[in-house]
């Protein structure tokens, strides 16, 4: 359920989506700390780059999960309520994600 | 200066490179925690996706700094020492980074 | 207006969108022929790679135009008609575009 | 073998590399013409986007082949001849390819 607070829209997510997103971010945070540890242990460049590629992949999959949820809930609801500006909003973020 | 420990090569970085890489990772870690906070505060999907795009950009620039240092030190030294397998190693990681 | 032929859906585009898409593809086709010419004239590698990056950017912008049109016409219409599988279809293609 | 013509470096490629690169570009050119045909036949948006994703993948693999050849010939030779600016040149193009 989406509410418009003073300046930003918010979105109440169901517990399952909430838990999944937090779990993914916790893992990514751990991976970043792991890479810091590699630098601290003088790890070799290509080994570090391999780990960073894994973090980028994890972020990309986080994006896809969030985007799919957004489209199946907010975008569908907005379109049914005639708020078609939701498509412009979606396109704006896709411009960034489709580098 | 690069040493081959039992199974993994290591690389002693100069203090400036070391500090820059750690600083970048600390900032990325902070950004990830910030996104977790957004989820906890029921932030709207596209606002979260915008922040994740910023983290991906920060990771990409971390990669470029590390890659440039790697090429200007390890790859140049290896080629001068006739260890041309360094190019295969570099190409392997570029395959991942050039999705 | 979208019709379902025997196995594939088709889409009648308005003349303006049609002309723009064809114009973009003609230009991309010309760029590819230009790169072939560079190879034939023994052009240097990085000069060629620079041109290929320009083609990738042109393809990416072609995708964004097509995607925006698709969302503002087919996806909005389908959702209003209760055909929410259009979102799964959109997500499937976004998975490919969001490498 | 690389010569510096008046303003641009050129590179004489071995017949095998030359044939492979031209073959790849011919195929990509054909794919672009195929996509034009899809637009002319009012093909559905997501079917077109799927084909464009295939062209992007083909361009990406063309880049990797060209880059690997470049590194194993021009970059190795330049470094052995003490022309280390070749690394800056390589990094400049990687910045574009590592969007």
Automatic annotation (TrEMBL), chains A, B, C, D:
<protein>
    <submittedName>
        <fullName>Metal-sensing transcriptional repressor</fullName>
    </submittedName>
</protein>
<dbReference type="Pfam" id="PF02583">
    <property type="entry name" value="Trns_repr_metal"/>
</dbReference>
<dbReference type="InterPro" id="IPR038390">
    <property type="entry name" value="Metal_Tscrpt_repr_sf"/>
</dbReference>
<dbReference type="InterPro" id="IPR003735">
    <property type="entry name" value="Metal_Tscrpt_repr"/>
</dbReference>
